[in-house]
Design a protein that fits this description.
The chain is of the alpha/beta class. It has four domains: 110 residues, no CATH class; 130 residues, no CATH class; 74 residues, no CATH class; 220 residues, Glycoside hydrolase/deacetylase (TIM Barrel, Alpha-Beta Barrel), CATH 3.20.20. Helices cover 35% and strands 19% of the residues. The chain has 19 helices and 25 strands. Strands 17, 18, 20, 21, 22, 23, 24 and 25 form an eight-stranded parallel beta sheet that branches. Helix 1 packs parallel to helix 6 and helix 7 packs across helix 11. 36% of the residues are buried.
């Protein structure tokens, strides 16, 4: 596809045509789907399978012949010769030496619409059973139109892994995106059931907007007149029972009466269940060997936030007609009872367990409720090795529930399965708490993305100029905020105090350590450095067409940054445009880099910078399921409460726009 008379736009056009033609025929029985990553994984088996499909005998000479033919087709230029990628150097991609960054971004923009065009499209009614969806192998994404009693709510996009989308994953995605309008409709049904005399005041209840307090009153079965019920943990309320706890962990179901607890610990961990399904662990302080039921209720409400609503809708309302005769709490109690009757093994025969048989299931370690840690996901079996390595390093639970004598057919990330303690507790966080002497708050957060800080080099910012910018930020009252503070502010919709800012640096160049790091420390700023994991200690091979060869930091420098309180994040394993990859390749890029970085750092890696700033719903979903909490792209605005934690915009800072940034 590349040679004399073939410009980039022409090749993009031909590629689009090829993809559309493939998807129009690929799911038919007399056509065979060919995945490029399968060819890289096992070339001999791949060609043997093709021969079997064609009804001819495989000959080992075919592989040699393929290499020769592909070289001739590409006019001996390094285009469309991907088979050499894994033979010579698995972490160097040939297009890195051909296309500049702006070329790749141009290509991605041109082909963006293709992803939605070739997605498998269906409609799902949320009041009907939500089952597993089997999908032809040629499709790697599902575009699902969600309807509520025949009315369109919107679109949910999910990756297709191993020819299916699990119903439990789809239900979770629907609840995460549309919990509130579904709940609003349920309350309208409840209002209809309670109206016997159609007065003007009673009819008005059908049309007003649902308030958060009403949801809490319904789920906790509290009196409507109790204004302090959810704001005062010390409110005295008569409770039915007092229990003695001999360990520092208790599981509670929100649809059941909460107990008062007598316990000989300074704090206890509470495993919170909604409709019988665990959504996370919250820690409750113990006062004089006692924890009141009201304190439990207040803590659960504060720390689960909107996830309490998402889980309630998912477990109580989805997949069945919205019945206004039962309260939401009663629906949850029925779901909890059904789960309690099931054996411990999640998918034992007859238990109607959460996850499918013959699956490998990954859990989590202490990631915040309501983030990507709370979202169910299916992952490709082909990436199981990389996922297992990353999970093992992180100390995350892995369950295998296979049928007898069978290999796993699915890989699931299950937020309900959680390790109570993280193996990384010993690594201290050295960033000091900021003290504020004014009452200003900020709902928007500038996130700056730098590349190089150096006196030399293309588009590099001179260290003296960078120092001036930092001093200017300092004089205006800006301070470095942590990712966890940003997360807490977004989940609770609480503005950050003062003038927060996040500074990030892409690439991990040695000039960051030599020039930027000392300046940031001296002026009391911290930063996040995003690394291409397989290039640590090497050179910037992904920028061959853009930049001169530059030395990257090795582990001695990276560990010094860690010990100084700087955050280390991932830019994937080999810096590929993820929106152009299959789910398997996306997961491998994210999981490999997470394993490399967490092994080297000895602490969790939560931040991910999308290569080329390019991200879509499928990439976000998979990167979150792999174990990342925060994802950053590029944009032209400050981050706000409306932005997903996995799609935070960063403003690129260059030598040209440095002083034009409005702060």
């Amino acid at each position: 596809m590349w040679g004399d008379g073939w410009d980039l736009d022409h090749c993009i056009k031909r590629w689009k045509e090829g993809v559309l033609i493939s998807h129009s025929y690929g799911h038919k029985s007399h056509h065979k789907l060919v995945h490029y990553e399968d060819l890289l994984e096992n070339k001999t088996k791949f060609l043997a399978d093709i021969c079997d499909f064609l009804g001819i005998e495989y000959d080992s000479k075919m592989l040699v012949n393929y290499k020769s033919k592909s070289a001739k087709l590409s006019l001996n230029l390094p285009w469309h010769k991907g088979i050499e990628r894994d033979i010579q150097s698995p972490n160097v991609h040939k297009y890195h030496g051909i296309f500049k960054s702006h070329d790749i971004q141009y290509i991605l923009a041109k082909i963006k619409w293709i992803n939605s065009e070739v997605a498998y499209k269906i409609k799902v009614e949320v009041t009907e059973p939500i089952s597993d969806i089997s999908i032809p192998q040629i499709f790697d994404r599902l575009c699902c139109t969600i309807q509520l009693e025949g009315v369109k709510l919107g679109i949910v996009e999910l990756p297709v892994c191993d020819g299916m989308v699990a119903g439990v994953v789809l239900a979770d995605a629907i609840a995460a995106k549309f919990a509130w309008p579904i709940l609003q409709r349920f309350f309208q049904h409840r209002a209809w059931e309670s109206i016997h005399e159609l007065s003007e005041s009673s009819l008005s209840r059908l049309h007003r907007k649902l308030e958060w307090r009403e949801f809490l009153q319904e789920i906790w079965d509290c009196p409507i007149s109790s204004s302090d019920y959810f704001s005062n943990p010390n409110l005295t309320i008569d409770e039915a029972s007092i229990i003695s706890l001999t360990q520092d962990l208790i599981a509670v179901e929100v649809s059941e009466e909460l107990p008062n607890i007598q316990v000989d610990f300074s704090e206890i961990d509470v495993l919170v269940k909604v409709g019988g399904v665990a959504i996370g662990i919250v820690t409750v302080a113990v006062d004089n060997n006692f924890v009141s039921a009201q304190q439990l209720r207040w803590t659960i409400t504060q720390y689960t936030n909107f996830e309490l609503c998402v889980a309630a809708v998912r477990e109580a309302l989805l997949g069945k007609p919205l019945n206004g005769k039962m309260s939401l709490r009663s629906h949850l109690a029925a779901s909890a009872q059904q789960m309690a009757n099931a054996p411990e093994r999640l998918n034992a025969a007859g238990s109607e367990g959460i996850y499918p048989q013959n699956a490998v299931i990954f859990g989590r370690c202490e990631r915040a409720i309501g983030t990507s840690a709370s979202r169910r996901a299916a992952l490709p079996v082909a990436a199981l090795r990389e996922l297992a390595e990353a999970a093992t390093i992180a100390g995350e639970p892995i369950m295998q529930i296979p049928l007898d004598n069978e290999l796993p057919k699915q890989v699931i990330y299950a937020p309900e399965i959680m390790a109570r303690k993280s193996p990384y507790k010993a690594v201290s966080q050295l960033t000091e708490t900021q003290v504020f002497h004014n009452q200003t708050v900020n709902q928007k957060l500038p996130i700056f993305a730098y590349r190089r800080i150096s006196p030399n080099g293309l588009n590099a910012i001179n260290p003296q100029v960078f120092e001036q910018q930092l001093q200017r930020l300092k004089n205006k009252g800006y301070y470095s905020v942590s990712w966890s503070s940003l997360q807490s502010a977004k989940l609770t919709k609480t503005p950050l105090p003062g003038k927060p800012i996040l500074l990030t640096f892409d690439g991990g160049y040695c000039d960051f350590f030599n020039s930027a790091f000392p300046l940031l420390k001296r002026l009391d700023f911290t930063a996040t450095i995003f690394l291409v994991a397989e290039s640590i200690g090497k050179t910037n091979s992904w920028e061959k067409a853009d930049s001169e060869e530059l030395q990257l930091m090795g582990w001695p420098e990276i560990l010094q940054l860690r010990d100084a309180g700087f955050e280390i994040g991932s830019m994937s394993a080999t810096y590929q445009p993820l929106t152009g990859l299959s789910p398997t390749e996306i997961v491998r890029e994210g999981a490999k880099s997470r394993a490399i970085l967490q092994r080297g750092l000895g602490k969790p890696v939560k931040c991910f910078a999308y290569p080329y700033g390019n991200v879509d719903e499928i990439v976000k979903h998979l990167i979150g399921a792999i174990g990342y909490t925060y994802g950053v792209s590029y944009g032209s605005k400050f981050s706000s409460f409306d932005d997903s934690l996995l799609s935070l915009p960063r403003i690129q800072v260059t030598a040209k726009n440095l002083w034009q940034l409005s702060l």
